[in-house]
Amino acid sequence: MSAVTHSRGIERLVKGQDTQDGAGVRLTRVLTHDLQTRLDPFLMLDAFGSDKPDDYIAGFPNHPHRGFETVTYMIAGRMRHKDSAGNEGLLQNGGVQWMTAGRGLTHSEMPEQEEGAMEGFQLWLNLPAKNKLCEPGYRDIQSQDIPEVVTADGVLVRVIAGESHGTRGAVQRDHTKPIFLDVQFPNTPNAMFEQTLPNTHNAFVYVYRGSLEVVHGENATTVPIQRMAVLRNEGNGVVLRAKANTRAILIAGQPLKEPIAQHGPFVMNTREELIQAVDDFRAGLMG
Ligand code: FE
């Protein structure tokens, strides 16, 4: 018996843009600025993955953030985080760092390896206007502390946020109700995975191993590797069918429907608030 009776279709497929950030880390910006309103409450998704140290070794030296949350999910490799609130942590294979920038902090994210693969994601999740200047917060969630569930089809789901198949994730948020799943299909083809989603949640899937199909009624549309499928806001969930060993992240959240004003690492609601953020940073108020 399927819980998803009307599944979402694909609105568009997105390739992402190759770019550099930090001190010269090569990455793919999958969720770009022009999708911020469509995918509200998410502001950005970067995918990084390389076994060439030159692509990642420069890292992300000290820089500020204000007004939102950064969620970093490491698939492979090790990164050392330090911030102005005195937090320090080693982010590694399968772990998540969930940082609430709130009114502002300064941090660095530097590779703690000189060779080998570095792979993962960084997602930016907006904060509601009333919480943008909240106390900064930080959580390092080690891989073993991320709840997992295996479905009857043998799909391993790592529940970073929200809930899936009765398993509550590591993080919950009241206003944006984010769902962040790493969906790992078995080594046999055509396994299915379904996830219920309120149709008001904006949602997307990004494939980082193999490939899958989004099954929508009688139709199925392929999402190749390194593509993001923006899902239509319809029905009561999404149904995926994958090749063997496919892995994808499924992300959904309740939109805030508030104005978005961004200047680099600051995301507020108005231009005046951005000017204030720059002033506060220059005045040393972000650590
Ligand atoms: Fe950062």
Description:
With 287 residues, this protein is mainly β. It has a single domain, classed as Jelly Rolls, CATH 2.60.120. It contains one helix and 26 strands. A seven-stranded antiparallel β-sheet has the order 1-22-19-24-17-14-13, with no helix packed on it. The protein has a seven-stranded antiparallel β-sheet with strand order 2-3-4-11-6-9-12, with no helix packed on it. A four-stranded antiparallel β-sheet has the order 5-10-7-8, with no helix packed on it. The relative contact order is 0.21. Bound molecules: fe (iii) ion. Fe (iii) ion (FE) binds next to strand 5 and strand 10.
Notable features of this structure?
287 residues, 1 helix, seven-stranded antiparallel sheet, globular, 50% strand, Jelly Rolls, binds fe (iii) ion, mainly beta
Question: What's this model, at a glance?
Answer:
The chain is mainly β and 287 residues long. It is built from 1 helix and 26 strands.
CA-atom Rg in angstroms: 18 Å
Q: DSSP helix count?
A: 1
What is the helix fraction of residues, given as a range?
A: under 10%
Beta strand %: over 45%
How many domains comprise the coordinates? Answer: 1
Secondary structure layout:
Elements: E1 10-14, E2 17-21, E3 25-31, E4 42-50, E5 60-65, E6 68-76, E7 78-83, E8 88-92, E9 96-100, E10 105-111, E11 118-126, E12 137-141, E13 148-150, E14 156-161, E15 163-164, E16 167-168, E17 179-184, E18 191-196, E19 202-209, E20 212-216, E21 219-223, E22 228-231, E23 237-242, E24 247-253, E25 261-263, E26 266-268, H1 271-282
Antiparallel strand pairs: 1-22, 2-3, 3-4, 4-11, 5-10, 6-9, 6-11, 7-8, 7-10, 9-12, 13-14, 14-17, 15-16, 17-24, 18-23, 19-22, 19-24, 20-21, 20-23, 25-26
This protein binds fe (iii) ion.
